[in-house]
């Protein structure tokens, strides 16, 4: 019989984080039946040794090569079949038992396919964990720097006109929910809210949804874009995607570091998003071309920053 939930943590040279990560998971484990699985992507550091020696209650799967985030999670799902799978980043830390109330949301709605958990930085400032879908309009606005301006307006006045107007539209609702710091947006916070997609750093997926949509994370995407692709594919097949309003998960996400993204990471990000665009917009050629053009401009900016 399947366990209720498998907690899957994909690692790659994660020795800096893995002790705190696993300790937080063990201290805040769900009451439901569960398994905790670390899938190590052929780390060259001590990640696997730390898990093996210090966390005997955690199942360790060592892959012979680095297969990326999505395929690593898929390997964890195959290793520990469950009704639900919780993807938890190696540089993320639970603060409370949020998995039981999150699974309650699934039990209450049989068409709920994916749930994302809220994220914060280590200083507890808000971190975006749910998003509207990537579209030519959204990427164009991002390219114009609108996000930084809106963030300043919302953070400075969470009760103001900008927050209220944006909170009424899907494109801005998740942005306001993240940056208004608890301010009212005309609607009291429900247990969960509908979103287009959620961050894979803290994401729960129903196994029945995976079976219906064909596969979990797209194996053609090494990293970047795989979480959005999965959520949008689930939505197209009639599954709901929501963000749970529970105690946030702390996520490092490069917090407090001045290290630039390497050229390799930049290239992987470009490749992942290129595959995402081709698959998501395969039936909308004009939008696909526009997205590829904007991705190319993003890539040039990323390359310049990595070399600067």
From TrEMBL:
Domain Glycosyltransferase 2-like: 6-125
Gene3D superfamilies: Spore Coat Polysaccharide Biosynthesis Protein SpsA, Chain A (3.90.550.10)
Secretion signal span: none
InterPro entries for this protein: Glyco_trans_2-like (IPR001173), Nucleotide-diphossugar_trans (IPR029044)
Matching Pfam families: Glycos_transf_2
PANTHER family: RHAMNOSYLTRANSFERASE WBBL
Record's protein name: Glycosyltransferase family 2 protein
